[in-house]
Amino acid sequence: SWVGLDNHEIGFSNTRLGQGANAALPLFGIWMQKLNADKSFNHITRARFNSPSSAVRSKLNCDPVKRDGFFKRLFKNPNKKKSRNFRTGKDKT
């Protein structure tokens, strides 16, 4: 069954009901169970990928990078001068 709702006149009363995890995941799970149970689909459900080449592995071997969270990056204003220390309650000088 299609749960993509291309017809925007059809909708759910809230996004919790209409989200993919609630609407599509149960259908996908049943379909995958049926595929796994049918041995004629083993070439698909039991398929294995080749290992990536050494060139690809070297490109994936990156140093970890720590960044600020999404909201901190969104609302950060590096030009704003801090005027109060909220831990001590005193004005900064």
Alpha carbon gyration radius: 25 Å
Please list the strands of the largest sheet in the order they lie side by side.
1-2
Count of runs of 4 or more consecutive helical residues:
6
Shape: flat
Q: Give average pLDDT, whole number.
A: 82
N to C succession of SSEs = HHHHHHEE
Low-confidence spans: pLDDT under 50, at least 5 residues?
A: none
Major β-sheet profile: 2 strands, antiparallel
N-to-C terminal Cα separation, in Å? Answer: 65 Å
Share of helical residues: 40-55%
* Total strand segments: 2
What structural category do the secondary elements indicate? mainly alpha
Approximate strand percentage = under 5%
Tell me what you see in this structure:
The structure is a single chain. The N and C termini lie far apart (65 Å). This protein has 6 helices and 2 strands, in the order ααααααββ. With 93 residues, it is mostly helical. It is flat, with a radius of gyration of 25 Å. The model has no long low-confidence stretch (mean pLDDT 82).
Q: Which terms summarize this structure?
A:
single chain; 93 residues; mainly alpha; 6 helices
Give the gist of this structure.
The protein has 93 residues and is mainly α.
Any chance you could write out the topology, listing elements then pairs?
Elements: H1 15-18, H2 20-23, H3 25-37, H4 42-45, H5 54-60, H6 70-75, E1 84-85, E2 90-91
Antiparallel strand pairs: 1-2
